[in-house]
Automatic annotation (TrEMBL):
InterPro entries: HTH_MarR-typ (IPR000835), MarR/SlyA-like (IPR039422), WH-like_DNA-bd_sf (IPR036388), WH_DNA-bd_sf (IPR036390). One of its GO terms (molecular function) is DNA-binding transcription factor activity. Residues 27-159 form the HTH marR-type domain. Keywords: DNA-binding, Transcription, Transcription regulation. This is MarR family transcriptional regulator. Residues 1-20 are annotated as: Disordered. GO terms for biological process: response to stress. It holds the Pfam family MarR. The keyword Transcription regulation applies. The keyword Transcription regulation applies. SUPFAM superfamilies: Winged helix' DNA-binding domain.
Amino acid sequence: MTSTSADVGAQTARGVSPRVASGAPVEADLGWALGVVFRRYAKASGAALDDVPGGPRGYQVLATVNSDGPKRQLDLAAQLGVDRTVMTYLLDDLEKAGLVQRQPDPADRRARLIVPTDEGKAQLCDLERRLSATENEVLGSLDAEERSSFRRLLQRVALKADAIDPLHNACMLADENVDPATT
């Protein structure tokens, strides 16, 4: 894409449809479309998860231990691509909020298993309702069949992209100085 967002805004305000180098409207550009949808989803889902310790990461921890069962802290960090030190602080916050608890691992008394509490399970149900409403808002222009197809196709593309270029450490992306293309 050759136009900046400021250029696009100025051109749109003048009634000129912004174009990419090929001459197609900017709305036909995959990068533009992915960026717009991601930005809207990130803002709306962030608001939906605002009261969860750790926000989206906290939700992922809660959802994972609820669906997969108890997990060792280090295994959970590796599965979610979270630095183990960051995971320790995140679990501290989730535990203080009463959403998870650390229990001794019967197979290795040095390790701790992360288990959702009843309060954590109830909170997860509420969070899933909020995220469903967020998805409905973001994908509101699609009917049910189109949403299903979109999700299935997007998942296929995402799995292939991740297989080619896996993200080894999601925490690195939080650093504004890191280029996602190099992680």
